Structures are given as C-alpha cells and as structure tokens.
Amino acid sequence: MSAVNKEIKRITTHILQKMKTDGERISMLTAYDFSMARILDDAGIDILLVGDSASNVMAGHETTLPITLDQMIYHASSVVRAIRRSFVVVDLPFGSYQGNSKEALISTIRIMKETGAHGIKIEGGEEVIESVKRIISAGVPVMGHLGLTPQSIYKFGTYAVRATDDVEATKLLADAKLLQEAGAFALVLEKIPAMLAKQVAEQLTIPVIGIGAGKYVDGQVLVMHDMLGINKEFKPRFLRRYLNLYDDIYKATQEYIHDVKRRDFPTDREQY
Asked: Are 79 and 27 part of one and the same domain?
C-alpha cells in the first residue's frame, strides 16, 4: 500500500486529485451490500461504486435499465454503513435524470440525504451537461462516464468496444473536456481503445478511471462479482479474475449438504 494510502483516514475528492497529480493509481470496485463493502473497505480500496450493475449481478436482469432509484438507495445505504475510509459513489439509475436536469437534481438529493454517499456517477457527455452543472452547483461531487454507457445499450445494440472510429473518438474527447469544465471530479471510461483513453487521461487534469480502457489511465474499476469469480459466464478480455468463488461456494455448499444428510453436522461439540 502506498504512502498516500497509509497517511489518510478518509478518501475525499481532494485526495483523489492528489493521487492523479502524484501519479498514484486509483483502485475502484463495485459494492452493493454491507458485508462485502466492509471487506473491500478494510482491504484499502480507494473508491466503492454502488453501480447500477446491481440490476445484473444482484437482481438477475439482462441490462442495467430496470433498477429503480429506491433500489439504488437501498444498496447505497447498506454500503455506506460499512465503510470507514473509502469514497462511495452511487450511479444515477436509468430514468432518474435523462432529459431533465431538475429531476436529476431531485434524484441526486434523495441519494445524498438517504444514503450518506459522497458523490454520484452519471452516464453521458454533452447531453447531460446541464444536469451535471446543476448537481455540482448544489454541492454534490459528480463522476462522469463515457465510452460504453450500459444505460444506452439498446441505442448501441451491442456491448462492443466504443469510439473505434474518428467521429466517435473526437466526440468522446470533447465530452470528456466538457465534463471537466462543468466541474466533474473524475471520469470513468468504459471499453474504449487504450490509446484513446491515454489521450483523454493526458489531456484532463481530473482522474480518469478505466474499465476495459487499457493501462494508461489514472485508475481501474471492475465489478466485484466479476473480479472475485462469482460469475462464470462473463469473460471479456479486460477482466482479470483474482478468485474463483463460484466453484469455492459451490463446493462448500455441497459439503454442507453432505454433512447434513449424513447427520455429520452438527456434532456434539456444535450443540448446546
């Protein structure tokens, strides 16, 4: 763990900016519940994202679109109760901000008041700038999200790499600068070419965090269920699995079933 990590008690936007300036990489994972958030926070993760990916990994939906603001608040409040040092960011879910900056602010205020989170994340560039400015003017830190934006999956029609052509790459770079100018404290780039992500990270002064955006950005984020191998089906090139928890939990459950069926559990020592 780095010197910056050792000397601080609580991660803030100021600390994250200092990490970018000092060249220290920022670590970020998703979290959706108290127990897992406590482990990740104790381990020293810099940012916990209460992602709308809860729609997929917690609720079993095909996309992130079905999750509601109330459900995001439930997950976020569970995470915030667990943390001591991590910076907690919450996704504004689909339908809680699009096309209406007033509604975006109302949704954000509900999240901040009801969860105790430290900031929100919003997908999109120029089309959401009014909302970004309005939220920041209310004193709430905003993290941007460009590239593959899962809430727009039906518009894209595919989860393929984004911004591979000059037109889309130029727009992404312009959107990144707009978000910074609007006051965003950080930016997530999802599934774009590594050299484009490098260009964005070099041209922005705020931290740029990648998922499938290569090694030249200021930090990395993964979905916790993917990183720990709780999911087996999802195998994108950018994912590194650090554990294979699906198999470990499967095996442990089978052993438990076996012991119960054979009356090996509980033993005399495991009863009162």
From this structure: yes
Amino acid sitting at position 128: V
Catalytic annotation, pick one of 62, 126, 127, 190: 190
3-state class of 87 per DSSP? Answer: strand
Quick check: 81 and 120 in contact, CB under 8 A?
no
SS3 103: helix
Domain that holds residue 265: 244-271
Domain count, the chain: 2
The per-residue pLDDT for range 128-170, each reduced to its tens digit, is: 999 999 999 999 999 999 999 999 988 888 899 999 999 999 9
Question: Would you call 190 a catalytic residue per the annotation?
Answer: yes
Q: Are residues 147 and 230 in the same domain?
A: yes
Whether 219 and 267 map to the same domain: the answer is: no
Is 101 a known ligand-binding residue?
A: no
Could you give the residue ranges of the DSSP H alpha helices within 93-163? 101-115, 129-137, 153-156
**9 has binding-site annotation:** no
Please report whether residue 107 resides in a domain.
yes
